[in-house]
Each structure stands twice: as structure tokens, then as C-alpha cells.
Amino acid sequence: MKTTLLALPFLLAIAFVVYAEGKLTPFAIWNALPAVAGFALLWVGRHARLAAYRIGCAIFAVVATLFVTLFHLAWWLDWHGTATGSSTSALAFIFVPIWACLLASIAGALAWGVAWLVDRHRLAR
């Protein structure tokens, strides 16, 4: 039951990415990879001994999945001309997974660092 609840948001995000792109294409799979990587890292990180690792993995998973999902929502609803504002706007689908993983890596590393410092400070007391 816990595994199902943990996987549900990621499965919904992946399903929305495929739905927003119209069908299952190589680009849909490419754009779903950050959510898959986020879930995989969260799954592996939940067994980590240190809380800092678990926090960093969770932040990576959330940020990568939200970034991809929000981009596809903006595209699907055409917020401020995301889809129709430029003839080359669809090229963003090539770079969104890279941006999502880069942003999530930075956020996860920062969260890991803060959690590690807090844990270290707490142990020093």
C-alpha cells in the first residue's frame, strides 16, 4: 500500500505528460524521464541511513516531476502563448528534461547540504 501511494503522483505526472503530448512518442518518453528518475531516486534514497540523503532525494524527485508537469500544463493550456507564441516553441520539449534534472539536482544538493549541516549541528550539541 505504501509503495502504491508513493508511486501514484509520479504515475499521474507521467500519464499527464503523455496525454499532453497527444500520444506515446519518443519525445513523450524523453519528457517523462525526469519523473521516472525522480521516482527511482526517491525509491533508492528511502533506504539511506542519513536523513540528509533521504531529504536530498525527495527534493530532487519533487522538483523534477513538478517542473516537467508544470511545463506540460503551461503548454497544454497555452499560458501566455507557450504553445502558440513562436514557431520554434516546440523545441523546448528537447530541453525541458535537461532543465528539470539540472534544477532538481541543484535543489536536491542544496537540500542535502542544509540537512547535513543541521544534522551535524544537532549532533555537536
From TrEMBL:
The organism's place on the tree of life at top rank: Bacteria
Keyword annotations: Membrane, Transmembrane, Transmembrane helix
Transmembrane segments: 30-48, 55-77, 89-118
Name recorded for this polypeptide: Transmembrane protein
Organism field: Rhodanobacter glycinis
